[in-house]
Amino acid sequence: MIVHVPMAVHPNVRKVLVIGGGDGGVARELSHYDEIEQIIVVEPDEMFVNVCREFFPDNAKGLDDPRVSVINRDGLRVLRGKQDEYDLIINDSTDPFGHTAGLFTKEFYGSCFKALHEDGIMVYQHGSPFFDEDEEACRAMHRKAYKSFPISRVYQAHIPTCPSGYWLFGFASKKYHPLHDLDAARWNARGLKTWYYTTNLHTGAFMLPKYVEDLLEEEERAEKK
Question: Which of 64, 74, 92, 181 is catalytic?
């Protein structure tokens, strides 16, 4: 869901930055798209990459694609100073705490905006709003993305290993709307095999429960004041 949603919207992705993703799963899914020329995976924990190569080879094989390069550095440091560099940025980090806290700051979203081309897209892990203790993190992420990008939407997926089994992703773009610019015919013509994603599901994923709509709209109204 963090790969196929933006790839079904953006018509011409050539260069992708993946922040986190040291398990290789995101790179594996990106490798199915022949038009992509370069995939940069920024994973600060080299040991994590090595462990995934050993114990999760089905995911980690994505890192072996010749278009993939792995950089063992902090994601925010890599982004600083970059301008007009990427078509797509995928933030695959999940927790706004500890060593990944810098990837959920206002500076990070601003740096992503600068690093993207004029039609670039950023997608990111948005967390789960189901439990009260997780709600504020969801609110904060939407607040920062909504302030940084002209188009900011949230979509959902059911993932059993995530809190409550219900997970959100963020879609932030300079130009493309995730529904209005979805090219279902183009994506379906690729004939990619997936277990979860379809272009019909793509549309439905942006139809959120009322309590999620309410908390997102509250943050949007607060930013407009």
Answer: 92
